[in-house]
């Protein structure tokens, strides 16, 4: 038990967010297994309030990139606060998102707030934010476990993704998980993870 917990800790410490990827295609079976792993997440009343749109088509990736860069330009020009800009400085990010066309696979993740039933009534879901967060965490770990890198990319605002991917009104896009082999030339930002004492106490 102790050994297994140590192994997962060491493996998890190696996970980092990449913002540059190799274009090599990925076996779709690997992606499917990762998404199915995400689908095992605990969730409110077992409504499983999620949808994963897996995008590998270059034309769709290009459209997503164009729309994302439009909203990002507006975000960085007009919406971002000085405090947020300062916090992002260490990550060297800007409105350009080349990884959206460079990476072989984009998993666009939607949270399902409700579903419209055949009689027109709404079938509501519960604890949707909590459930989707847990599911995405499991997806990220599954992708890491498969030997791939990922980026949790959150265009602000992300609403354009629902129209582009033809998802129903009860679903809200949460993020794009960009997945691919890590670019060995990408310089990872130097970050320090908090210690146990900083993030926890034992009562
Ligand atoms: C909810 C969420 C949203 C994020 N959005 C972005 C984003 O839009 N662009 C980006 O480059 N990184 C984004 N990140 C990645 C974080 O910047 C990154 O996880 C953090 O700096 C820690 O680095 P690490 O993942 O390498 O440990 C996001 C992460 C999370 C959890």
Structure notes:
This protein has 203 residues and is α+β, with helices and mostly antiparallel strands. The chain is built from eight helices and six strands, in the order ααβαααβββαβαβα. The strands form two sheets. The protein has a four-stranded antiparallel β-sheet with strand order 1-2-6-5. Strands 3-4 form a two-stranded antiparallel ribbon. The two termini are 22 Å apart. A hairpin with a 5-residue loop joins strand 3 (114-116) and strand 4. It is 42% helix and 17% strand. Helix 2 packs antiparallel against helix 6 (128-145). The mean pLDDT is 95. It has one domain (16-181): NADH Oxidase (3-Layer(aba) Sandwich). It binds flavin mononucleotide. Flavin mononucleotide binds at residues 16-17, 19, 91, 93, 151-154, 191.
How would you describe this structure in keywords?
203 residues, alpha+beta, NADH Oxidase, two-stranded antiparallel ribbon, 8 helices, 6 strands, 42% helix, globular, binds flavin mononucleotide
- CATH topology descriptor: NADH Oxidase
CATH level-four homologous superfamily name? NADH Oxidase
Per DSSP, the total helix count is 8
Q: What is the average per-residue confidence, as pLDDT, rounded to a whole number?
A: 95
Biggest sheet, open or closed, and with what strands and sense?
4 strands, antiparallel
Q: Could you tell me how far the N terminus lies from the C terminus, measured between alpha carbons in angstroms?
A: 22 Å
Low-confidence stretches: none
CA radius of gyration is 18 Å
Range of strand content: 15-25%
- How many structural domains are formed by the residues? 1
| SSE string | HHEHHHEEEHEHEH
Report the strand count. 6
Q: Give the spatial strand order of the biggest sheet.
A: 1-2-6-5
Q: What molecules are bound to this protein? A: flavin mononucleotide
Helix/strand/pairing class, anyone?
A: alpha+beta
Named at the architecture level, the CATH assignment is 3-Layer(aba) Sandwich
The amount of helix comes to 40-55%
